[in-house]
Amino acid sequence: MEARRNSGEAYQLDREYSADFWRNSLGKYDISDEYFVPTVRDVPMFPDRDVLPGETWSAPGYEVHDLRQGFNIREVFSFPMPVSYEYRGPVNRDGKELHHIVIRYNIFHRKDIPSGNPLYPYLITGYSDQNLYFDNILGRPHSYDENYEIMLHLSDGSTVTYEGSASAEVIESPDLDREALKDDLRQRLNELGVEDSSVRDDEDGVTISLENIQFPPDSSRLVASEQAKIRKIAEILSAYPQRDILVSGHTALAGTAAGRQQLSEDRARAVVEFLIELDARDRSRIMYQGFGATRPVADNDTADGMRRNRRVEITILEN
């Protein structure tokens, strides 16, 4: 999954990706060219020997990007870069002995411009400076932070720049016991008196569906009764703090398709922001999406069906 957000806002689920690949003990990827993820590949790469603090080495890596939106490039867009490494030595983080590796690369790569595409990135420049903390026991990264800038020089003479900072930590969650979770959620919803609710499992995890969710007409403002309902949901979610959450908005079949889509997104975002305000999740562990009226659960030709289709779904993700 890939999420995006404007400054200060909740994360919105933007795209979903899947990939099958192998990676050997030195860090080399074995992956088909068809996949858009992982974005950075063959990084880190390790020499086939032990390294000591202060040692440096280099190896080629490459990045791949999805430029279908905005650039109309249907295939995976990739470019190579030489990567340099410096092993700083062992450090203690989160009660673990980890190994600090500084990773740097500069990007300068030219591409041939295909005919018929006035916005093709013919030159890619930039850099990345990273601090990687590697867990030797588990044989994988524990966390990292990064400052980066990538500039796409386009064939029409303009440039597009991506710059900023990033950080991440690998979080492992136990397998989701879906049957036990569904039973527990149903019991808690019943005990708390959450009306018009149901529980099911799907490919992403276990979902609480809140039908007949109440907003003023054409508004994403939660009315007092729905705030009370979401407070109860926040109490339920607090029992599963290790799981990420996805909130999905749905509308009945009324108005325009574009209006329904925007309204479903706005209402899902309102629920997410309220859950964040209630400390049900950190902003980085919850996201939202909208489906408009494209996934009805009942007939939109009846008042009862439209009531059921106006819903918000909260999924406890498999992670």
Automatic annotation (TrEMBL):
UniProt keyword terms in alphabetical order: Membrane
Transmembrane segments: none
Domain OmpA-like per the UniProt entry, residue ranges: 202-319
Record's keyword annotation contains Cytoplasm: no
Superkingdom of origin organism: Bacteria
GO CC annotation terms, alphabetical: membrane
Gene3D superfamilies with a match to the protein in the record: OmpA-like domain (3.30.1330.60)
Coiled coil, from the record: none
Stored InterPro entries: Bact_OuterMem_StrucFunc, OmpA-like, OmpA-like_sf
PANTHER family named among the record's database cross-references: LIPOPROTEIN YIAD-RELATED, STATOR ELEMENT OF FLAGELLAR MOTOR COMPLEX
Full protein name: Outer membrane protein
UniProt source species: Salinispira pacifica
